Amino acid sequence: MPPTTAGKWVSIDNLVPDDGSHLSRRFLTHWISLRENQLMPRMEQFDPTEVPWALSNIFLIDILDGDDFVYRLASETFTLRYGKNLKGARVSDFMNEAAAQSILFRWRLIRDTPAGVFVFTSHSSVDGRQVRGERLLLPFGDPDMRPARLIGITLFTNRPEIRPTLIGDQEVQVMRLANLNES
Predict the structure, then answer these.
(1) Pairing of strands 147-156, 58-64
(2) pTM, two decimal places
(3) pLDDT tens, 115-135?
């Protein structure tokens, strides 16, 4: 099934829904503060020491030439859930084709619009149970304010004892988008 564009467009301030985690809301507030009067902050404005409460859940994605993306950094949350360090990996290296295409659709949307994205997803585990994940993804700009890197924060909101058991699928349950040109 091709990726869907179904999602609710909201302002950047409302990107994280009311039932989203405190972690996602706090991280969004921090990113907005870095943004100042720009379309998006630049990577060099981000200081990890200002968000010690988020570091175990952060990931960075490099936007490569030729429509590709690669993990620059994936925190311990990813290592625990997928059983390996994702640095240098492409999403197609550990997700099935449908899930990879859905994720790449969102990453391209962030890059091309530019936009922020918030999603609730459900993932299967090897024992057949579902693990719910919450992700917030936001761009960092280059000097010309084109997205050059994505930063995200992930929180798996149930079954914390499952490590590493995700099998590489994903079902998007909720997607919210914020067009930065309109926020």
Answers:
(1) antiparallel
(2) 0.86
(3) 999 998 877 766 777 778 899
**What CA–CA distance (Å, rounded) separates 164 from 106?**
25
Instruction: Locate the DSSP E strands across the chain.
Output: 8-9, 58-64, 68-74, 115-124, 130-141, 147-156, 171-179
Q: Nearest 5°: phi and psi at 140?
A: -110, 140
Q: What is the CA angle 179-182-183, rounded to 5? A: 85
Q: How many residues does the chain have?
A: 183
Q: Which of 101, 96, 60 is CA-nearest to residue 78?
A: 60
Q: Rounded distance, CA 33 to CA 94, Å? A: 33
User: Of 62, 98, 77, 53, whose CA–CA distance to 166 is shortest?
Assistant: 77
Alpha-carbon gap, residue 46 to 33, rounded angstroms: 10
Are 180 and 21 contacting, i.e. CB atoms less than 8 angstroms apart?
Answer: no
Q: Residue written as tokens 């919450």?
A: 134
Distance CA 159, CA 32 (A): 31
